[in-house]
Design brief:
287 residues; alpha+beta; 23% strand; DNA_primase_Znf_CHC2; DNA binding; zinc-finger
Length: 287
């Protein structure tokens, strides 16, 4: 029994990125905390298979499934649990996962305080993005936070897990945990946007319908898997994701998996997102 537990622990700790490379699959895009691959489980031309560098977990958006290294081999080789363990004990796959080194045991970003009062500097930034202060103040707060020895302030949107999505003119980050934001007004229709300024822009561009729908601000496309339990409760799901390759992939995924989903990105085409369209409209109206 002890030997089996050790084998399971060792196999589960196999570094997924290195494992995929050894099997001939290389990332198409790498970031600080994640790597994107063309799915090794199916044919595709745009990467929708993500591996977390901090958690050593994978997720395939096209299949709506993910897991650890053992799960990956079971799916990749169409084998059972024991066969996956035997495969991973091969010395050629002895890539032990080591999480990125932590510089400090203290959180990188520490929340100090929040306030409904928004300073003039942040109000200027809101207006630069074409958003009325009155609208922004309904949903955003001023968040003061510490990064190592520095004290900073940003606009903050609270997310579903009580983390804070932070934006100012120079910096974009999050006070963990990362999650989506759900604005629930108990409607049967849901509107999905990518970021806080897309959401607020919708409140300007489509003010008549804005209050007649619930809203999800994704805050990151990587948060979509967290929505799987929420989306079936809505009769209509309106999609306003970005007009870019990542937005295309996620829109296609949601349309495929939810019959009630409707792609409304044509409403801000050829602009990349809702806020870009709003800023364009503001400029045109001042010429």
């Amino acid at each position: 029994m002890k030997k089996n537990n050790e084998l399971w622990s060792s196999a589960r700790n196999t570094d997924i990125i290195q494992l995929l490379k050894s099997l001939g699959h290389y990332p198409t895009k790498t970031k600080e905390k994640e790597a994107w691959f063309l799915s090794p489980l199916r044919s595709e031309t745009q990467a929708s298979f993500i591996v977390s560098k901090t958690k050593n977990l994978w997720y395939d958006f096209g299949l709506s499934k993910g897991g650890n290294s053992i799960d990956l081999i079971m799916n990749l080789k169409s084998c059972n649990f024991q066969e996956a363990l035997n495969f991973l004990k091969n010395p050629q796959f002895s890539f032990s996962f080591n999480p990125p080194a932590q510089i400090s045991h203290e959180p990188k970003i520490k929340l100090l305080k929040t306030s409904h009062f928004i300073s003039n500097a942040l109000q200027d930034y809101i207006m630069q993005r074409g958003i009325p202060i009155r609208l922004a103040s309904r949903f955003l707060e001023e968040v003061t936070y510490k990064v190592r020895s520095g004290i900073y302030f940003s606009l903050g949107l609270k997310n579903h897990k009580n983390g804070w999505e932070l934006r100012n003119a120079y910096f974009k980050t999050v006070i963990p945990p990362k999650s989506y934001t759900h604005i629930c007004w108990n409607h049967t229709s849901l509107c999905i946007t990518e970021g806080m300024f897309d959401f607020l822009s919708l409140g300007v561009l489509e003010k008549e319908s804005f209050e007649k729908m619930d809203h999800v601000i994704l805050n990151s496309l990587a948060c979509v898997p967290q929505l799987m339990g929420l989306l079936p409760s809505y009769s209509k799901i309106y999609l306003y994701l970005d007009n870019d390759p990542a937005g295309d992939r996620m829109t296609s995924y949601l349309l495929e998996h939810f019959a009630q989903a409707i792609d409304l990105r044509y409403r801000f085409y050829p602009h990349k997102d809702l806020n870009e369209k709003l800023c364009h409209v503001r400029r045109e109206n001042t010429l």
